[in-house]
Amino acid sequence: MLITGASGFVGANLAHGFFKLGYDIHLFVRPSSDLWRIRKIKNKLKIHTVDLLDNRAMKEAVKKINPEVVFHCAAYGAHTDSQKDQQLMMNTNFFGTVNLLEACMSTDFKCFINTGSSSEYGEVAVPMAESRLLKPNNFYGVTKAAATMYCGYVARKCKKPIITLRLFSPYGYLDSKDRLIPKLIIDFLAHREKIDLYSASAVRDYIFIDDVVRAYKKAVSKGRELSGRIFNIGSGAQFSVKDVVGQISKIFDRYPEITYGGGRFKQHEPKVWISDISAAKKYLEWSPKYDFSTGITKTIKWFKSNSDNYDR
Q1: How far apart are CA 183 and CA 312, in angstroms?
Q2: pTM higher than 0.85 for the full model?
Q3: Euclidean distance between the first and the last CA atom of the chain, given in angstroms as a whole number
């Protein structure tokens, strides 16, 4: 198995999850990658320092590994505050995907799973279905949509087992501390009496990371059967920032002062952000196992035991 982007949140959880299943796991990482998320298993994985934009090195590494399964999670631009370089966004998200798929074409892989994003849809007023016309409203969404379409094109043209899992808003273990749920949990663990957030009404469809990993497991077993398909991986429900604060406050049984509007909006916030997961239920035979309350509770428990990861 080959995983790109394994130093990131989703990729690292996939590395941990599939390592437990006994897979022989290879990772593509950049020289600058911080591997703290996989440090407990790092010595048991095969790590390759490969730039997705280095065609020659990529082809040589893929040929040597000859992976049966590829999880493509490498991406740039999801963190809007710190990842703003549009050229790097296009290079990583689109051209990196093109190069990786081209390198894999000389192998007989059984399943290539591209990691998509709900940002590809843009703003819609109803639950987002895979059949909708994509109208991304930021550059990150544009690059991810381009990569998804390219993967579908290659799957159809070359009859290769390529699937895109279009993730909504994963949360859970090993998440980045600058995202809403980890930030709030860290603030609550630090007993902060006042927390400032940018909006009470911004909504997302949150999906617990264990459910995300289960979706990849399902997709691996159905690679050839579902080649060229795109599947939303979300909960099918949306929660506002205020809802998230309420849920975390309830679990901690603590209610600090929450203020809103302390910072500028990072982007225009739609009123609806819900996944239509009917296709994943029907064809992947996947549906979320954890409701929001259970997922948040498990996340808080993990953070309590691993808060030292975030004292960095």
Answers
A1: 14
A2: yes
A3: 31
